[in-house]
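Regression test case RT-17, inverse folding.

Input:
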């Protein structure tokens, strides 16, 4: 269980800071920490196929992240 004081500190962060914290927490997990279901694997395969078929329609993660940050208050 997460400490209530920690949750309180997280809630005091700005939205941008919370998103950065989420990203850092996710990146800290080992690769096998979040099991992937067969349905999720199929979805990922379909998205990878779309990336290969339509590379110009894609945006790199850093660009997406910056666009999201600009939309935050």
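Golden output:
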């Amino acid at each position: 269980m997460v400490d209530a004081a920690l949750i309180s500190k997280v809630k005091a962060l700005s939205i941008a800071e919370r998103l950065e914290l989420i990203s850092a927490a996710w990146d800290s997990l080992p690769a096998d920490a979040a099991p992937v279901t067969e349905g999720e694997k199929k979805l990922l395969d379909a998205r990878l196929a779309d990336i290969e078929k339509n590379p110009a329609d894609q945006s790199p993660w850093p660009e997406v992240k910056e666009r999201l940050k600009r939309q935050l208050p």
